[in-house]
Write a structure and sequence with these properties.
- This protein has about 250 residues and is mainly beta.
- It has two domains: about 15-70, SH3 type barrels, CATH 2.30.30; about 90-135 and about 150-250, Porin.
- It is built from one helix and 14 strands, in the order αββββββββββββββ.
- The chain has one helix at about 1-15; strands at about 20-25, 30-35, 40-45, 50-55, 60-65, 70, 95-100, 105-115, 120-130, 155-165, 175-185, 190-205, 210-225, 240-250.
- It has an eight-stranded antiparallel beta barrel.
- Strand 11 (about 175-185) and strand 12 (about 190-205) form a beta hairpin.
- It is rod-shaped and about 110 Å long.
- The protein starts with a helix and ends with a strand.
C-alpha cells in the first residue's frame, strides 16, 4: 500500500512539473518549452495544448525540466551609438613649444597648446617677450650715422589666442587652419602697441611620439593703439598684416 502511495505522489509531482520561462519583467511562465526562433520563443502553456509564443526580447532565462538552461537576456541587440575609435584619439593632448627663429626678430615666444578629445581642435596660448634686437644682434661698430636709431632698452610682451582645426590626414602630418589673435607691445617696432587678427593655414608634422613641428602662414590686419614718438604709422588706420610662424614642440 505504501509503495502504491509513493508511486502516486511521484507521478502527480512529475505531471505537475513544468519547464520555466523567466521574463525580464520578473514574471515566470510555466509550460512545455518547444523551440527558439530568431525573434520568438515557442512553448505550450500550462493547462493548455496549443503552442504559444513570446517575444525573445522579453525573455531572460529558460529552465527545462531535464536540467537544460538557455540564457536569453536581450535576444535582439539594440542599435547603440558607435563608440569612438580609441586608436584615432590622441593619447598626448598637451604641448609646450617655442618659436626659435623669432629670437632674431626680437621675440622669445613660448606656446602652450591643448587638444580636444577628438584631436580635431587645438587651443593655443602664446606668450612672447619682445626686445629691440638692434644693438644686441645687429650692432655695427662702423655705423657712425647720426640718423641711426637708438637702441630701446627693456622688454615688453605680446600674448594672444589661436584656435586650430586639424584635418586628419595621417599619423605624420595634419593640415590645420583657424583664427589667430595677438595683443601687446613690440619693442622691435620702437615700442608700438597694438593688436592683430589673422586667419592662418599650416601643417603639423609629427616626428616620433612626442616631438612635433608647426609651420603656418597668417593673413589679416593690424590695429595700432599707441605709437610713441612716431609719425610713420597712423593709429587711426588698419594695416594689412602677414606672418610666417615656425614652432617646435613636445607633447605629453
Amino acid at each position: 500500500m505504501r509503495v502504491l502511495l509513493s508511486i502516486f505522489i511521484l507521478t502527480t509531482c512529475f505531471l505537475r512539473a513544468q519547464d520555466k520561462i523567466f521574463l525580464i519583467s520578473g514574471q515566470m511562465l510555466q509550460g512545455k518549452f518547444v523551440s527558439l526562433a530568431a525573434q520568438q520563443v515557442f512553448y505550450i502553456p500550462k493547462d493548455s495544448s496549443e503552442v504559444s509564443s513570446i517575444e525573445k526580447t522579453q525573455v531572460l532565462l529558460i529552465e527545462c525540466l531535464n536540467g537544460d538552461r538557455y540564457l536569453i537576456a536581450n535576444g535582439q541587440k539594440k542599435n547603440r551609438p558607435a563608440a569612438p575609435d580609441s586608436s584615432k584619439l590622441p593619447s598626448l593632448r598637451n604641448s609646450i613649444g617655442m618659436q626659435p627663429f623669432g629670437v632674431l626678430a626680437g621675440r622669445v615666444t613660448f606656446v602652450y597648446e591643448r587638444l580636444s578629445k577628438s584631436g580635431r581642435f587645438g587651443l593655443c596660448i602664446p606668450f612672447s617677450l619682445t626686445f629691440d634686437p638692434f644693438g644686441v644682434f645687429y650692432t655695427s661698430a662702423a655705423d657712425t650715422s647720426v640718423d641711426s636709431p637708438e637702441h630701446i632698452p627693456g622688454v615688453s610682451y605680446i600674448t594672444g589666442l589661436d584656435v586650430n582645426y586639424y584635418f586628419k590626414e595621417n599619423k605624420q602630418y595634419h593640415l590645420f587652419m583657424g583664427p589667430r589673435f595677438r595683443y601687446g607691445t613690440d619693442q622691435m617696432m620702437r615700442g608700438v602697441e597694438g593688436y592683430s587678427l589673422q586667419y592662418q593655414f599650416g601643417w603639423l608634422f609629427r616626428g616620433g611620439k612626442s616631438f612635433s613641428q608647426h609651420l603656418s602662414v597668417g593673413y589679416g590686419f593690424l590695429k595700432l593703439l599707441n605709437v610713441p614718438g612716431s609719425s610713420t604709422f597712423d593709429p587711426e588706420q588698419l594695416y594689412g598684416w602677414m606672418s610666417i610662424n615656425y614652432r617646435i614642440g613636445f607633447w605629453w
